[in-house]
Amino acid sequence: MNTTRRTFLKTSSAAILGFPALVRGVNLNSNLQIAGVGCSGKGLSDITETGSHPKAKFVGFCDVDTTHFDKVDAKFPGVSHFQDFREMFARLGDGFDGVTVSTPDHMHAYISLDAMRRGKHVYCQKPLSHTVWEARQMRLQAAKSKVVTQMGNQIHSAKEYRTAVKLVRDGVLGKIKEVHSWQKNPGNGYTKLTAPPASGPVPASLNWDWWLGVAPQREYAPDVYHPFKWRDWQDFGAGTMGDFGCHIMDPVFTALELTSPITIRAESEGLNAQTWPSAETIRYVFPGTAWTAGKTLALTWYDGGRLPDNALAQMPADGKLPGSGSLLIGEGGTLILPHVGMPQLYPQEKFGTFEIKTVEGSSHYHAWVDAALAGSKTTDNFDYAGPLTETVQLGNVATRVPGVTLEWDAAAMRIPNKPEAEALLRGKYREGWEIAPAA
Ligand SMILES: NC(=O)c1ccc[n+]([C@@H]2O[C@H](COP(=O)([O-])OP(=O)(O)OC[C@H]3O[C@@H](n4cnc5c(N)ncnc54)[C@H](O)[C@@H]3O)[C@@H](O)[C@H]2O)c1
């Protein structure tokens, strides 16, 4: 038994012997005891930022790669290590109140649903899930378990996005007629591949079976999936749309109170059986809201270097759209919101002297800790983030059925004009790793 294990057993038996679990909503003076799943990459910053809250206390770190604990250990020494989150959850039992989930996308729902079923609060990275169906289960389970949730698109709480939301809500542009959102990224190097690359030996530090988790069996290939590069692969990530859609469309969703689209249509540079395309255009139509001009609102997503027509922005002749961001076209002007930058208003003749008042940002991570301790809600909870993620993943469903306008019946989770595409709303899980619906 190593020291970490001994230390853990000491603390866990203390928990079993009667240290009370945090009772939601009544322990403002207690610490929030947190387990972190995924400790390098974004997990390192999720743990660092969450752990900087004076009442946040990490009680367990889990990573399938044992070489990935060093940086979190340097920041928070003495926290127990696990390679399997299921063992961590079982061992910690009542000794933890919440979890940060910072794994590749395909494992978000499996881990978060398990935690919520145990009554644990969840901070889960974007996109909330790998499929539309999983995003729906995440929202339903959070409501059933009455836990405090937050999606990890931290720019939601940043001054740039908050300021843009306020400008739209203040009616500076009038009602919004259409929206364009884009991200220049063409993927991470594998979008043109058609077959899995050559396999190689699994490093001794990595449990490849647990890294695969719900995903179909495949051989490990060095420096192709783990770490970071899994994004391009359909079995693990969600392409550029999945990587950036929940960031870039978030202020649009918040400002306009969008929920579910009614139609989705996609075209791309071509899709193979393994990876997401290198460039695509996805056209959504949403029901109109109090903030939109018509009965419906068109929102078009572009990636891989595709951009909306510059002329739509009403910028000066030498104006250039940013590499990534959104363009909101209102009845009385346009707003360009770079990802991530302060909003700009056009045309210049109208807004040249307009003073944009900055709405201050705050810590997205601390907001989750505060809400969990107070029993209150975050603004990026799964009731909000679920439909945003469904929209992102519906884009990927449409990409797999190119050139067809899919009608979306959100309440029934059906595609009435293309029922054969409904299978794409769900994943196929490896035996023993099936994801159960919210209950
Ligand atoms: N919010 C943001 O700005 C932002 C930025 C980057 C990534 N992300 C998101 O964060 C998540 C992680 O992305 P990344 O770039 O850090 O990936 P990564 O592959 O670099 O890191 C993932 C970490 O999780 C570990 N891991 C993998 N499977 C695990 C499992 N089943 N159990 C425990 N640990 C496991 C890996 O060993 C690694 O340490 C993704 O969902 C990604 O979309 C968000």
Short description:
The protein has 439 residues and is of the alpha/beta class. Helices cover 29% and strands 17% of the residues. The relative contact order is 0.16.
Provide a descriptive summary of the structure in words.
With 439 residues, this protein is of the alpha/beta class. It is built from 13 helices and 14 strands. The chain has helices at residues 3-16, 42-51, 70-75, 85-92, 108-117, 132-145, 159-169, 208-212, 239-248, 250-256, 348-351, 364-374, 382-399; strands spanning 32-37, 56-62, 80-82, 98-101, 121-124, 149-151, 176-183, 263-268, 280-287, 296-303, 324-330, 333-338, 344-346, 406-407. Strands 13-12-11-7-10-9-8-14 form an eight-stranded mixed sheet. Helix 7 (159-169) packs parallel to helix 10 (250-256) and helix 9 (239-248) runs antiparallel to helix 13. The radius of gyration is 22 Å and the shape is globular. It starts with a helix and ends in a 32-residue tail after the last strand.
